[in-house]
Known about the structure:
With 401 residues, the protein is an alpha/beta fold.
Amino acid sequence: MTIQEKFGFHKVLNTRGPATILGAARVQESIRRDISDILGESAQINELQRRASEAIVRLTGAEAGCAVHCTSAGMAVAAAAALAGSDPARIKALPDITWPKKKIIIQKGQVTGAGDCPVWQVIKMCGAEYVEIGEALDCASFHLKAALDDTVAAAFYVMEDTFAPNLLPLETFVSLCHEKQVPVIVDAAYLTDFRMLARLGVDMAIYSGHKWLGGCTSGIIAGRKDLIHACYMQEMGIGRPMKVGKEGIISVITSIEHWLARDEEAIRRTQTARAEEIRAELEGIAGVTCSIQESLYSPSVRLHVDIDEKQAGIAAWVINEELAHTEPVVMTDDYYVNQGKIIFDMAFLDEGDGTVIGKLVRDYLTGVRTPDPKLTRAVPRPRQDILYDWFDQWLDDAPRG
């Protein structure tokens, strides 16, 4: 009996990547063993955190690091550390800030989701005065310089590949902030170059422990020793409801060891083979173009499938919504699906999964399968509307209907 059969949920072929709504990473057996072992033991959390700091330093090159519950929690904890430092009275006072340094700034064009909640929400929950600078598509040095006054406690920067190209680059952002002694906090949940941010002088960098590192639910804050110390001290205050447990801390340590020892070339060969399984099924279909790509924000092989609706006779977004209701369920990276692109990430597929996915997509493209009339719409829906329905239907008898 599979775990899906035992507990009554659907099998998912995950080509989205380590998304939280899909349970994040598939944790490898060696990492699971260490997590299992610590669950049967008692341990001093501060001692585990010291060992985690040593591992994080090896991974990132930063001065220190600590484990947190997840990257969204890390953003809130880092903001609290910038606002309150290690002062216990201030830690206990948050979110009521009575001292001058209470602003946290961010480029307007980088206002995105911290997972599925808006980034401003995790900043403001600490009591910060949240300030957006620049415009949606542009941010200039003069915008940042004008904002960096004596009331600014920190500046946020988000590492993504989907933002407008005319925002301030990280190097410039860090340099201007440091001229005013303002620490820079970087949300790097999906970044896979773990040493880049320390080299650039980022004061607090936040990484996921359960995405590409492949552990259970956890996050990492790496950076300046005094600020990382302040991050851990937030467990006396606003960080307490989002604390990381012993299993999360051990997961960070052991997944870092696994990451540093991985065979990148062997992984690439295996994942390329999965991508070729999908591409082989779609070869020769009118209006369909496939390309294998890699990115700074994904260590895995990704197959980009571009679908010309006029030639193919069906839109990419229609196929994408249908795949979420097949058996097995197929989940994709859908950020560009309304522009005609379905992205398949190969990180969590087994041998033969690519063929199953390719045949499903081919059947929709060739008319063997037709869209469910109950799901058919005249125009694509925004991604957040689809996501809302997911959350809204979770207690329904048929939550996928």
